[in-house]
Write a structure and sequence with these properties.
Elements: E1 2-3, E2 6-7, E3 14-19, E4 22-26, E5 32-36, E6 40-49, E7 52-61, E8 66-78, E9 80-87, E10 94-98, E11 104-108, E12 116-119, E13 124-128, E14 133-138, E15 152-156, E16 161-168, E17 172-187
Antiparallel strand pairs: 1-2, 3-4, 3-9, 5-6, 6-7, 7-8, 8-17, 9-16, 10-11, 10-13, 12-15, 13-14, 14-17, 15-16
Length: about 200
């Protein structure tokens, strides 16, 4: 994912599933593109993770908004399922957590490796620098099936700021399928003017 021609991620996003003592990391892979228009592209993907299948049905619109419908299919116990986003260190300077009628948090992210933060659900997370950033959205608290204190986690490493949304954070029995709807966006939604950050007095 890029913003204004610059990469936002240190590595591709990944889905990490743990079940039966095995951890499966899904990243990249092939996608099948359906609708292709100037203002919207739709695409799907499917991957296996042990006894489970993960499929996505997604769309991307002209302003960079992406909706991902992620479906987990299978039978058995899943111990953990998380979306991990490794954001480039020089992009991960500031954090904004937001929920309508809920809390609003604005804070700088310490540059030192080893910094961590864990939070309960909030609808929107933005991580970025002075010029660009990454937004992650879920619709309601039930999207993150993990203990309240660790539904969303952050970890600063030497190579990235890891944003982790725990879709499943405790042993959960799967019988059939479960689906989550996630929103992603690179910001700003359109190029900034050259003098966007220039102070002005009127």
């Amino acid at each position: 994912m890029t913003s204004q021609g610059e990469p936002l991620f240190a590595e591709p996003m990944r889905l990490v599933l743990t079940a039966g003592g095995q951890t499966h990391t899904l990243s990249g892979g092939e996608v099948a593109v359906g609708l292709q228009r100037d203002d919207r592209v739709e695409f799907t993907s499917t991957a296996s993770a042990g006894a489970f299948t993960v499929s996505t049905s997604s769309w991307l619109e002209f302003d960079g908004v992406m909706q991902v419908n992620l479906t987990l299919t299978g039978a058995g116990t899943v111990d953990a399922l998380a979306v991990e986003v490794p954001i480039a260190p020089d992009r991960a300077l500031f954090l904004h957590e937001h929920s309508q009628w809920g809390t609003h948090e604005y804070l700088p992210i310490p540059p030192e490796a080893g910094w961590t933060r864990a939070k309960g659900w909030h609808a929107q997370t933005w991580i970025g620098d002075h010029q660009r950033g990454f937004t992650f959205v879920t619709e309601h608290p039930g999207d993150l099936m993990a203990p309240t204190e660790s539904q969303i986690q952050y970890e600063r490493t030497a190579d990235a700021l890891i944003f982790r949304a725990n879709l499943i954070g405790q042993p959960t029995e799967i019988a059939g399928e479960m689906t989550w709807t996630l929103g992603l966006q690179a910001s700003p939604g359109k190029p900034l003017p050259v003098d966007a950050c220039r102070p002005s007095v009127q």
